[in-house]
Amino acid sequence: MGQSVAYEDVTSDADVVAWSREYCRDVRREWGVDVRFDLVDWEVSTRAKRRAAAVKRPKLPDATVGDPYDWAGVDGADGRPLPCTLSLTREAFEAFDRGEWEATLRHELVHVEQYQRDGTTDHGAAFRTRAADLETDVHCPTFADPKYVLSCTDCGGLVARRYRDCKLVRERARYRSDCCGAELALD
Known about the structure:
By secondary structure, the protein is of the alpha+beta class. The protein has 2 domains: 7-133, Zincin-like, CATH 3.30.2010.10; 148-186, no CATH class. Helices cover 32% and strands 16% of the residues. A 3-stranded mixed sheet has the order 1-3-2. Strands 5-4-6 form a 3-stranded antiparallel sheet, with no helix packed on it.
């Protein structure tokens, strides 16, 4: 793949976008991803703390994954999908190795492909199948340390990572692990 900005030379947010955009175009060409990049805006988030990237899109209440969406009925769409934004997290780019970042981008391309076809996206069966086709995971690797880690008191297995105080953290005595049905410990 002929990148105009070498991965190891990425120093700015503009470089992150340029390298990622070019990589995604190569993926579209080489892996047959059905994405219109003229309808994708790109940004780099410095605020995101947990997600490596995200597809920001309008919520269409009648859209369902697996059912092609009728974009002709949407104001301003002119029969084509409304634009979405691929938001990349700078801290994730810096924490991941190249393979992890490429897998993250392929993951997000599945979301863009689903959104442009179906008007929505999720991590369901169709996503898992397409992610496997693109040799990526359903969940991107973590790059930030969670504030709270909940584990099973019986087997010690990881139950959840939380980055802020929430009901699960505060009321963990009310919940049980899926693995053993045991109480949750806060590590």
